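FW: tagging you since you asked about this chain on Friday. Here's the raw sequence from the shared folder, copied in full. Didn't touch anything.
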Amino acid sequence: MDRTRDRSLYLMNLSLMLPELTALTVLGVLTLGEMYVKDFSQKFSARAACLGSLAVFAAVLFSWGRQGTAFGGMFGVNVFSLFFKGFFALAVIPVLQMSKEFFAPRLRFPGEFFLTLWITLIGLFVLSSARDFLLLFIALEIVTFSFYIMAAYLKRDLFSIEAGLKYLILGSLASAFMIYGISLFYVASGTTSFEGIRTAYESGQAASLITFGLILTLCASAFKAAAVPFQLWAPDVYEGAPTPVTAFLSTASKSAAFLVLIQILFGVFPAFETGRTALFSVLAALTLIYGNLAALHQTNIKRLFAYSSISHAGYLLIGLAAGGRAGLESILYYLAAYSLSTLTAFMVITTAGQLLGSDKVDAYRGLARRSPFLGAAFFIALASLTGLPPLAGFFGKFLILSAAVQQGLIFPAFLGCCAVAVSLYYYFGLIKKIYADEPSAADPLAVPAPTLVLLGISSALIIAAGFFPAPLLSLASSAAEVLF
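HL: got it, structure written out here
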């Protein structure tokens, strides 16, 4: 009887891990293909990985609505975790296409990079379902170490090596903060589970020790989010890393950081409400001011997007400061809209960088004349990132600022509006170069067909999410409801 019960429990645990098991299966297929199939790396690995992403997304859809915990409560599945898993599974598809386009002429075996990218995806999936700080830390380190490797993947490029080394050194410090904070949680409560630490904190058990641990874990998470004053790594790493890695860093890594912040603040420490509002209002203000002002005079497009990414973290921090269900819904919607717009922009940057041979902003002069499709997609992405109606980014900013006003956070909301005006300068300065300036050459740019398809889909989704925000907002609302 006990053996039958144990087997049933084991199968139930595995059934909750369907997306992770599917991702592991895809990783195994990719690994075997690299080992035994001739020319798999050059000809088939990117396509196989893209198909694998769709298979994983199908597993997420199949699991939608399931709820439960596994492995002693360390691993949990609900709509919130599945929202992020579906998000990560879709976000990796354009990154795979960018990677194929970027690495194929540079590496003999580009498929090895796809394996590293896939390991990152598995880490993100486990992170989404972590209900214990020990599992959360392990998953976060899997993701972080994979990014260290990918940032320094071009071994003959000194800028790439420098980016990976800087990220490793500063990221290790953030990891030390995280594990030290977790150790304080354990000392104070005798457990690393979210539920146990929450109970200990709300009962007043060693509250000062737990609060200090909370501050350390928040600092580590703010580093991953590139929030001021933990943003110093971002510009150099974004500029030096391979462009597809920069794209994934600015979307998946940032989303993972806010996933951790949401789990900590809403799942474990909802009683930290007063401190959360004050702390993140200040961080949001500093991040918005620094990111937007630093972006004004950048000449490298990847560095410009690094500072832009910092400023967008400021809006997300306003959502954390606002709190409540409205604040969390706005964060989830904003993450989706921001990531969609950023991935669209980076698909253009990757293709243009390959064809123009430069990441300088001046290289984009007259881009729309040489490739109207690239110019149009870039315009839509930049307008959405600015927050112009009727695009996805506008509705995301509207939700964030509305949630702030509802909670009486007038100054952060006002600062967010001012930041939109500042971002108009550098985003539309780039649009001016694309449409109004004379190109350096007259020959048209040949854009790969898969990139054209993905750009068309992502641009259409940016427009659709602006005109019809209800479906995405409904998903965000369902995910946020889990934590309230």
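FW: Residues 269-484 form one domain.
HL: agreed, and The chain has a mean pLDDT of 89.
FW: great, closing this out.
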